[in-house]
Every structure is written in C-alpha cells, then in structure tokens.
Amino acid sequence: MILKLLRNALVGVTAMIGLQAMAQDFPSRPITMVMPYAPGGPGDAITRLFAGAMQKQLGQQIVVDNTAGASGSIGTAKVARAKADGYTLLMIHVSHATNTAMYKNLPYHPVDDFEPIGRATIGPMLIVARNDFPAKDLKEWLAYVKANAPKISLAHAGVGSASHLCALMMMNALNVKFNEIPYKGTGPALTDLMGGQVDLMCDQTSGTVPSVKAEKIKAYAAIGKTRLGGLPDLPAIAEAGVQGLDITISFGLYAPKGTPKAVMEPLTAALQKSVADPEVRQRLEAMGITAVSPEMARPEALRAHLKYEMDSLNNLLLKAGVKAN
Predict the structure, then answer these.
(1) Which of 89, 157, 159, 164 has its CA 20 to 30 A from that of 188?
(2) Where are the domains of the chain?
(3) Is 153 exposed, middle or buried (0-12, 13-18, 19+ CB in 10 A)?
(4) Ramachandran assignment for 86, one of left (phi > 0), alpha (psi -120 to 50 degrees), beta (any other)
(5) How far is CA 127 from CA 53, 298, 306, in A?
(6) Cis-peptide into 27, omega within 30 deg
(7) Are strands 31-35 and 200-204 parallel, antiparallel or unpaired?
(8) What pTM was estimated for this model as a whole?
(9) Over the range 75-107, which residues count as b (16 or more CB within 10 Å of their CB) and which as e?
(10) Within 10 Å of residue 137's Cβ, how many Cβ atoms?
(11) How would DSSP label each residue in 212-278?
(12) pLDDT tens over the chain, length 325 residues
C-alpha cells in the first residue's frame, strides 16, 4: 500500500514537473481556438480577428475550429475535455452562461471546468429584416409587427443564443409573439434573412452591420438607448418609447481548468495587447463593436461578467418558459 501511494505521488510530481517544463516553452506549436458556432456568423468574425492578432503576439499560428451545435455546448465541451496546456482555447459569448439553464446534463460547468483569460469585445444588437419587409421606418415597423406578429417569422441562432435572448426581450417589450425559427448558428439564419425566407432577426452588429451597409438587409433600430457610430441615422429602440429592451453581447476567451499560470499569463498578455491594437479596434468598430479596455481583458473581469450573465439571463429564460433538455 505504501509503495503504491509513493508511486502515485511520484507520478503526480512527474506530471507536474512536465507541465511546468512545457509551460516555460509556451507556445511551441500552433494553438486551436474553438468557436462553438457555425462559420459566417458574428462570433466567427470576432474569433478570426483575435486569432490573427494574438498569433502575432505569441509567435505561433492560431487555428480557428468551428465546432457548432447544441447552442454552443458541443464546442465548449470539446475545450473542457482538452488537455490543460493552453493549446486549445474557447472564444464564446453569452451562451456560456445560459447553457446551464438550457441543458440538464451539460457535460461541463462554465465556472468549474474553465480558466477565464479575459473579455474581448462588447457589442450592441440590431433589429433587421428582409429587404422587402413592409415598413419604411421604425414607427411603421412597430405598428406592423404589433398588428401581424403571429404571421411574422423571427430567425435566431438557436435557443439560448444571443439572438434568441434578444428575441425574447423584444417580444416581452412589445407584448407580441412572433413565429420563432431557430437555426444552428447566426450564419445560416442571416443567409435565409438575406434570401427572404424569414422576416426578422435581432442580432449582433458584427454580423448585421456589413449586410445593412451592403443593402442586403434593412435595419430598423439599434437595441438599447444609444445610436451606433457606424449607423448614425438609425434610431435607438428607446427613442420610440420602447422600454425593457436593452442587451449587449460580450465575447470572452477561456482555457481548460488547470491550465498553468505560466501559460495563462502570456495568453492574457496577448489578449490585452490585441484589444489595444489600433487595427483590431478599427476593424471591430467597422462592425459596430467595441474592443474592451486592456484592464477588462483580464481573468477577474471575465469571471465577474460570467457570474452576472448567469444570474440575470438565466432568469430571463426561466420567465420565458424555456425548459432544460
């Protein structure tokens, strides 16, 4: 028994020494950054931008892996199971918080199974529609949707996604019920909106602003109380007297639980330098998104934001009658 305990302790110490040795050389090979939603959506654009910026800082290639499905939980579980060596990372938004309310047997815990690296972005949302939707401005849009809500199809990226949360808030604020059409990611939903297969969507500016500017879809309002710098003529929904409709989406970067401090520190430093990079900030602003300050691109800031989202948005899903699968 004593020999077995000594042997196990030796194995543990050897493994720890091995991890510490690898951490000192980090990174010595390419890193995978998992984006748990389909290509073409706002999360994909943000992830690829930060992968490119951070690989310049770290001196190693960062490959983006789109592992979509189950409201982001499939890709997230993949990272939770990965070796805690810093070579598999997760870029994710609000679904990291809301999936705890969505799934009874979630194969990971957003707090217990991950090390927060830092926040990356803060982004508002837009109400957008197919180009031939029958309303020329926000006033007409409000009147039309209130009179025809059951006939109107509202696309979103899946239950618990950012676009779904915005849809729930919008229906609550307007006291209407649209015909919800869930998709496996924002990309496919936006494609069908541009094609006229669905009527409306409420989604992040990173995916919608370029399509609005290209006149592939039309926008009616920015969510919240503030107009967008990239679309200054577009009213904020609060200007029309609509209350209780205000949500922003923040992306954050995580590593598997147990990732050594010697690995976490260069990852956080690379993220902090990336959010301060003028080119990164300019490209995000073109999408209507704001890079966080370097102070917010820290583990403590992301940990606090995750707790806030888990407390507030899970309550929204509960009130909406969304039941865990």
Answers:
(1) 89
(2) 2-123+249-319, 125-240
(3) middle
(4) left
(5) 30, 31, 25
(6) yes
(7) unpaired
(8) 0.79
(9) bbbbbbebebbbbbbbbbbbbbbbbbbbeeebe
(10) 11
(11) HHTTSSEEEEESSSS--SSSTTSPBGGGGT--S----EEEEEEEETT--HHHHHHHHHHHHHHHH-H
(12) 565 545 555 555 454 455 555 567 899 999 999 999 888 878 899 999 999 999 999 999 999 999 988 888 999 999 999 999 999 999 999 989 989 888 888 999 999 999 999 999 998 899 999 999 999 999 999 999 999 999 999 999 887 788 988 999 899 999 999 999 998 778 899 999 999 999 999 998 888 988 999 999 999 999 988 888 788 999 999 999 998 888 888 999 999 999 999 999 999 999 999 999 999 999 998 888 899 999 999 999 999 999 999 988 887 887 777 766 7
Neighbours of 9 (CB within 10 A): 10
Nearest to 297 by CA among 322, 265, 325: 265
Which superfamily does CATH assign the domain made up of 2-123+249-319 to?
A: Bordetella uptake gene, domain 1 (3.40.190.150)
List, in sequence order, every beta strand (DSSP E) within 26-152: 31-35, 62-66, 88-92, 114-123, 125-129
Q: How far is CA 160 from CA 41, 126, 129, 168, in A?
A: 16, 17, 21, 10
Residue whose structure tokens are 């006939």:
151
Domains 2-123+249-319 and 125-240 share a fold: yes
Question: Class of the 125-240 domain?
Answer: alpha beta
